[in-house]
Amino acid sequence: MKEANGFNSGPSGPRSYRGRFVSRKLIRPSLSSPASRTEPVSERRERLERTDRMPSNGPRRTSPPEQTHAENYYYQKQIQGKTPLVVVLKDGEEVQGFIEWYDRICIKLNRGSSHLLIYKPSIRYMYKAGESQKP
C-alpha cells in the first residue's frame, strides 16, 4: 500500500524506506576550543580520576558488615567458662544447662546427665542462671 508521501507500507512498519535513498545530515561538534590547554594530558587524566573517586561532599562511608560475629563471640565465652544458662524457648519452656557446642542453626546444651540439641529459631532468649529473670 502506498501512502500519500510516497513511502510503502509494509511488514516492517507503516513506513518502509526500501528502494528509496534518504539523505541524513551528519552533525559534528566543533573542534575549536576558545583557549588552548596548557596542562599535559596525563595531569588532566589524573585530576579526572581523583574527582571520580571521591565525591565533593567528603569521603563516602562504607556500609556496616552484614555479620558482626557477636553471637559467635558470646557462645565461645559461655563455652569456655562453662557458664550455667537458662534457655527460654518460644513456647515458654525453660531449659537449664551449659553450652557444650554450637553451629549455624543449633546449640547443644549439657544438662548434667543428658544432652539437648536446640534449634536457634526455637529460642526466645537466654540468660545466665545466677541472674534474675526480667521479662
The portion of residues forming beta strands comes to 25-35%
The low-pLDDT segments are none
How are the strands of the biggest sheet laid out side by side? 6-5-4-3-7
Largest sheet: 5 strands, antiparallel
Shape: elongated
Q: Given the helix and strand composition, which structural class is it?
A: alpha+beta
| H-E order | EEHHEEEEE
Mean pLDDT: 78
> Cα distance, first to last residue?
82 Å
How many beta-strand runs?
A: 7
User: Count the helices. How many?
Assistant: 2
Question: Any idea what the radius of gyration is?
Answer: 37 Å
Task: Please give the share of residues in helix.
Answer: 10-25%
Structure description:
With 135 residues, this protein is an alpha+beta fold. The chain has a domain at 87-130. Helix content is 19%, strand content 27%. A 5-stranded antiparallel sheet has the order 6-5-4-3-7. β5 and β6 (115-119) form a beta hairpin. The longest helix is centred in the middle third of the chain and has 13 residues, at 41-53. The mean pLDDT is 78.
